[in-house]
Write a structure and sequence with these properties.
Elements (H helix, E strand, L loop, with lengths): L3 E5 L6 H5 L10 H6 L5 E6 L2 H11 L6 E5 L3 H7 L8 H10 L1 H11 L11 H16 L3 H31 L2 E3 L2 E3 L7 H8 L2 E2 L2 H11 L5 H4 L3 E5 L1 H9 L5 E6 L8 H17 L3 E5 L1 H7 L5 H16 L8 E5 H18 L2 H8 L7 H5 L1 H5 L20 E6 L3 H14 L5 E5 L3 E2 L2 E5 L15 H11 L8 H7 L7 H9 L3 H13 L4 H24 L3 H8 L21
Parallel strand pairs: 1-2, 2-3, 8-9, 8-11, 9-10, 11-12
Antiparallel strand pairs: 4-5, 6-7, 7-12, 13-14
Length: 570
């Protein structure tokens, strides 16, 4: 009963021809593809997965309505779980035996034989259809749905990776969990929202946060440092109904000392914990860093993990509400959760989300379920003893970590678990400029929490990218560009006073405040933060670390009852 279009692809046409809209004579016309938008399903008779992605991207079709007909290519159809075209009932019988998932899903959805339109042998078509119908009748409805969902997830992941690569290429930016490279104008966050499919944090959401908590939203929310979310409104719904949620964030230990950029998610998470009064779990992914950093050994990465944990504790988290764990230590406790996630996730999904290839070590391929596991409350039976109860999870993180949790959210319903919510932050710019984030491996790109006051001043004066004029005269005449000036950008993060920040912007933009002046202000703001953290860290003993990492019940009150609070005065 479905409307089906069969698209014949000219094999001499390259993938890039379609994307740049310069189609060669004799190839598929742009207008033909546009007409396909009105069909229920599209069958692409082609020899390559990349062409399927082209059609899905170009027509804007729903992924579940696009099938790949790989003409005469059984091996590839089997590997990919896709569908291929053939005029022979025998071919379909062989395909069923080799890759039942693809054949069953295809015929269950369309209930028509897939044969070339130029073949007029009605008997062949009827024979092929009847054969597959018998096979389908032997399957349960649940099994068919399970197979269909898995194939759709595989296709969606593959197409998502292709679209991400194209989008990054066109925008001149590359964003993934391991590297961040902006375009000429820095990171285009509007494009990331569109690309990742998240929602912008707007004034309506901020007003609701203020209403629910009775607190003015953090200045990082008000200024757009945390700019995007997934299901934050649902977390507020739960909280208002007297149902708690928990927070989850993490740290990948790549150096002994953390830098200012690393503080952002933890400082914001602490604010969330304070205003909502909810439990928090912090994952330290020592295993992941061991997989991705060739030079790291396990003893070295474990040492860095402990040092980073002390830095995190020094921010003032409450041990009664906070559980910090290292994967090397806690992996076994989460293993059943990890195993269920791993079984529900295919290699195609992982490849689509992260772009892994055959040359990547198997540790990288196996890590995504480990980072996904803390998103589900059943991973922490000592905190949430009723493992059958779904406790919502909210994850504050930089947006480059979103691929992990898109995958997590995709598989959660199939496992009967609740999708985690997310709050995405922008990247804290490196001293060299807004195109990249700070790197722990490049000393001049960051202010580390171990830096002295003198070193902080030297780094800011020598390395901080300036948006000011080339000369004093030019700057006073034309003014500075605050939006690309690193000292000003850092002040937007660490200067809480809105009025003072507005004054600095106004004077710097007008040219009455010089580059040296704004760098001096930044030193005066950053230095006390770093020195204060150093003093707090000295007080963190091994016993305190052990307390935070102990598998003990946590104590919290937020969300356990309806709160009747009034917003505080601004």
């Amino acid at each position: 009963k479905a409307t089906v279009s069969v698209l014949y692809w000219n094999y001499t046409m390259s993938t890039s021809d379609l994307f740049v809209n310069t189609l060669k004579p004799g190839s598929v016309k742009k207008e033909q593809l546009k007409r396909l938008k009105n069909t229920d399903s599209i069958i692409v008779r082609t020899d390559g997965l990349s062409r399927l992605k082209c059609v899905a991207t170009f027509t804007g079709s729903a992924v579940s309505d696009v099938c790949c007909a790989e003409a005469g290519c059984k091996a590839k159809a089997t590997d990919c779980g896709l569908f291929y075209a053939s005029d022979s009932a025998k071919d379909w019988e062989e395909l069923y035996a080799a890759s039942a998932k693809g054949a069953e899903f295809f015929f269950d959805c369309l209930m028509v034989p897939l044969c070339s339109t130029h073949n007029s042998d009605a008997e062949l078509k009827a024979k092929s259809s009847a054969h597959m119908k018998v096979k389908l009748e032997s399957l349960s409805t649940c099994k068919k749905i399970e197979m269909a969902n898995q194939v759709i997830a595989d296709l969606q992941a593959s197409i998502e990776q292709q679209q991400k690569e194209i989008s990054n290429l066109e925008g001149g930016q590359k964003i993934d969990p391991w590297s961040v490279e902006g375009g000429e104008k820095g990171i285009d966050y509007d494009k990331l929202i569109e690309q990742f499919g998240s929602q912008r944090i707007d004034n309506k959401l901020l007003e609701r946060i203020e209403k629910v908590t009775g607190k003015q939203p953090h200045h990082w929310l008000r200024r757009g440092m945390f700019f995007s979310h997934r299901d934050m409104h649902k977390m507020l719904d739960f909280y208002e109904k007297g149902q708690s949620f928990y927070l989850y964030t993490g740290r990948g230990p790549s150096s002994d000392a953390m830098h200012m950029g690393h503080l952002i998610p933890f400082m914001f998470t602490k604010w969330l914990q304070d205003v909502f009064d909810v439990p928090l779990v912090i994952q330290v992914t020592d295993d992941e860093k061991f997989y991705v950093k060739e030079q790291l050994t396990i003893p070295v990465v474990e040492k860095m993990a402990v040092e980073n944990i002390k830095d995190i504790i020094a921010l003032g988290f409450d041990a009664k509400k906070t559980f910090i764990f290292r994967d090397f230590d806690y992996y076994g406790e989460m293993y059943r959760v990890i195993a269920r996630i791993g079984k529900a996730t295919t290699c195609n999904q992982v490849k689509g989300c992260f772009g892994f290839s055959g040359s990547d070590n198997i540790g990288k391929w196996g890590f995504p379920p480990v980072q996904a596991a803390p998103s589900f409350s059943c991973a922490f039976p000592h905190i949430f003893p009723d493992v059958k109860k779904n406790i919502p999870c909210l994850i504050p993180c930089a947006i480059d970590q979103d691929p992990y949790f898109r995958m997590t959210r995709d598989i959660a319903p199939r496992l009967g678990w609740m999708k985690p919510g997310l709050l995405h932050s922008t990247f804290f710019p490196s001293l060299q400029g807004p195109k990249t984030k700070m790197s722990a491996s490049i000393d001049s790109s960051a202010i580390f929490l171990t830096d002295t006051a003198k070193k902080i001043k030297d780094k800011i004066n020598k390395h901080a990218f300036s948006g000011g004029g080339a000369t004093k005269e030019q700057h006073m005449e034309l003014g500075g560009h605050a939006d690309i000036d690193v000292p000003f950008q850092w002040l937007t993060f660490f200067m809480a006073d809105d009025e003072e920040l507005a004054r600095i912007r106004k004077e710097y933009t007008a040219g009455t405040m010089l580059t040296g002046d704004i760098k001096k202000i930044l030193c005066e703001v950053i230095t006390p933060i770093v020195s204060g953290h150093q003093a707090a860290r000295k007080a963190v003993t091994d016993e305190i670390v052990a307390d935070f990492m102990a598998r003990k019940p946590l104590q919290w009150e937020g969300g356990k009852k309806k709160l009747d609070v009034k917003p505080e005065a601004k």
